[in-house]
Amino acid sequence: MTEPVVPKKRITLADVAARAGVSQMTASKVLRGTGSISEETRKRVKRVASDLGYVPNLFAGSLSSRSSNIVAVVLPSINDAVFGEVVAGINDVLRPEGYVTFIGESHLNPETEEKIIQTVLSLQPAGIILTGGIHRTAKADQMLKSWECPIIQIWDEEDEHYDGCIAPNHAKAGRLIAQHFIDQGIERPAYIGAELKKDICAARRFETFKQTITEAGLNLVELIDQELPRQPQTGRTLVAELMQRHADTDAIYFLNDAMATGGLSWLYEASYSVPEQVAVAGFNGTSLAHTVRTRLTTVHIERLDLGQVAARALLEAIDTRSARKMRKIFYVELSRGNTS
Fold first, then answer.
1. Structural domains of the chain in order of their starting residue, each with its CATH number
2. What pTM, to 2 d.p., does this model score?
3. Model confidence over 183-235: pLDDT tens digits?
4. 27 and 54 in contact (C-beta within 8 Å)?
């Protein structure tokens, strides 16, 4: 005979206080590290809380203090190597200061981002680190403007509404690759991208790349798919299509390194010599440690440092919030990756 399932009971502050033989107020002060409580009592309450598996209700605490120790970090995707390192940098700085991060993934979808923002604001966060470069909804924009916690924007340097901005210069990145191609004497350049309508920063890089190429008197072939993901397989698919239509292409700039490595693999399998026949370039520097046959030309970004700088800017904004808004813009310097 199957025994009935006994519902689990959440351990409360009252349970901890009762087991430790103190009032709930005393137990609360001990677990928050406040008040003049004897060392013996502190040790006893902490031991009981640990034995019972007590987890404080951070949300309840935020209602009384108007904020919590949560920092919301809203990203396109945690699976993206770029933002994985950014989050690592953020945590390096915030965790020693007693903050925990709440990660939300927008997948470059404005409606998804709006729901994430609404959810994290309900948690009374101490601050928000928000990825720019997305077409934000009017409702999300209004919620962010009207909320009192500090907000630091990363990745997009163009917005002026928040307490700080930490970002690479995307316009400079596009020009940098274009000038590299021009200096190498290329004659038939191409661009391969995806989802540019969703990604404002990638579109900005493309526009300055195109402008620089055009000003040099060269014709640019563009192959952009708005539906395919910005992954290696898309790079393979689109470069195969490009070379079928324009077999004389001698340089390709990809939206990012992931697509570029996919394109590289197809070119090698099709017996193209890189970079002798076709020069290939990407963006964000994630390929530098992983490519084997050649070192992909790329624009390298110190992603861990970007996250650390963003977190330090947020802490400064939290500390100085009573003095009204702090405005500080950081630009992450770009450098060209090693070329073959």
1. 13-56 (1.10.260.40), 66-169+304-334 (3.40.50.2300), 170-300 (3.40.50.2300)
2. 0.79
3. 999 999 999 999 999 999 999 999 999 999 999 999 999 999 999 999 999 99
4. no
